[in-house]
């Protein structure tokens, strides 16, 4: 695997392309709008143009989708039909389930959910339970936050409003008492500490990826929650529990953006913990900040998302992962992930 097409050159896609090139891959960027200051080969193509997309796929070994989630499955299907290695950043459960169904007949790898959560946090969390039969609870916590709380919601958008709305409203998969269940979004509220500072967390959708299916029968309790500054979820009820607004997700996203604003001065908080039968707790905890790549500063959510994707692609290229079929994030060895050039940024 040498030649890779990166579809979608927003903030994350552009950085993923640059990181892949730095890893030694031959990269072509693909988008319907030419990016600014993009030093790699570029093709201006609309992903709806199947003929043009197939022409690109015929010239590469792999494709990485950094497209909006509603176009992810479209590109995945084309990559599958062409026998091209496929990677994406989706959090959407239905998209991943469909991709899994193609696994047995796939001629290349199908690796969705390669971002931060699901993705990196699932790899880190699974490492805490691998080879152990005494773990009762696995908890994953992630937050992409402004460096300090701002605005009415004590939150600034660090990624797409559409994505935040989905995770705040969609059902959240979890394992409770040994059974896979759906719990309501923004439920199971808790207070926690990360790096010695107080935060709150509540259930949000998508962060576990396929982890529940993998750990069913091994761990009695598995859950994922988003980390926020204390007070965020209570104030959020005014917008997200309004019966007149709740059915209209675009309006909710607009309202969240209006009252929260955006930031590039962010931090990404990651915490995973496993509790055994005796109550002993094993923990992985990190706080990531913006870094400089290629002479440009990149916020934490951009580089952790892009970096996780690139690390997984690199492992497939190095033959450290299967070369065919579906690959779950939690099947990836954490030490192998950290051994890659981009994965080392997570140490």
Q: Overview of this structure, please?
A:
The protein has helices at 11-22, 50-57, 69-82, 93-101, 120-127, 161-169, 211-215, 232-240, 249-260, 300-317, 334-339, and strands spanning 3-7, 26-31, 42-44, 62-65, 85-88, 109-111, 135-146, 172-176, 179-183, 190-194, 197-203, 221-228, 266-276, 281-288, 291-293, 296-298, 325-326. It is built from eleven helices and 17 strands. It folds into two domains: 3-117 and 304-346, NAD(P)-binding Rossmann-like Domain (Rossmann fold); 122-297, 2-Layer Sandwich (Dihydrodipicolinate Reductase, domain 2). Helix 2 crosses helix 3 (69-82) and helix 6 packs across helix 9 (249-260). With 347 residues, the chain is of the alpha/beta class. Helix content is 32%, strand content 27%. The two termini are 26 Å apart. The strands form four sheets. It has a seven-stranded parallel β-sheet with strand order 3-2-1-4-5-6-17, sandwiched between helices. The chain is globular.
């Amino acid at each position: 695997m040498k030649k890779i097409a990166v579809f979608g050159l927003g903030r994350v896609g552009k950085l993923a392309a640059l990181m892949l090139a730095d890893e030694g891959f031959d990269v072509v960027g693909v988008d319907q709008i030419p990016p600014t200051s993009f030093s790699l080969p570029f093709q201006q193509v609309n992903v709806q143009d199947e003929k043009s997309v197939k022409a690109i796929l015929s010239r590469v070994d792999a494709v990485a989708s950094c497209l909006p989630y509603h176009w992810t499955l479209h590109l995945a299907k084309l990559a599958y039909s062409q026998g091209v290695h496929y990677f994406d950043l989706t959090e959407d459960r239905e998209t991943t389930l469909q991709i899994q169904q193609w696994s047995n007949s796939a001629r290349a790898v199908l690796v969705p959910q390669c971002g931060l959560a699901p993705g990196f946090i699932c790899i880190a969390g699974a490492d805490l339970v691998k080879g152990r039969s005494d773990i009762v609870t696995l908890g994953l916590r992630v937050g992409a936050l402004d460096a300090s709380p701002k605005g009415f919601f004590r939150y600034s958008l660090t990624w797409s409003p559409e994505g935040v709305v989905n995770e705040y409203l969609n059902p959240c998969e979890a394992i409770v008492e040994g059974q896979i269940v759906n719990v309501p979004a923004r439920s199971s509220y808790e207070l926690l500490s990360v790096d010695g500072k107080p935060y709150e967390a509540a259930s949000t959708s998508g962060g576990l990826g396929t982890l529940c299916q993998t750990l069913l029968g091994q761990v009695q309790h598995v859950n994922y929650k988003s980390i926020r500054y204390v007070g965020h979820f209570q104030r959020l009820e005014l917008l997200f529990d309004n019966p007149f607004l709740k059915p209209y997700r675009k309006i909710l996203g607009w309202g969240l953006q209006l009252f929260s604003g955006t930031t590039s001065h962010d931090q990404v908080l990651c915490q995973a913990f496993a509790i055994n039968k005796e109550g002993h707790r094993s923990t992985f905890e990190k706080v990531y900040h913006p870094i400089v790549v290629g002479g440009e500063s990149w916020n934490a959510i951009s580089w952790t998302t892009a970096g996780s994707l690139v690390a997984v692609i690199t492992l497939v290229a190095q033959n450290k992962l299967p070369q065919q079929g579906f690959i779950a994030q939690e099947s990836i060895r954490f030490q192998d992930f950290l051994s890659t050039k981009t994965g080392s940024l997570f140490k």
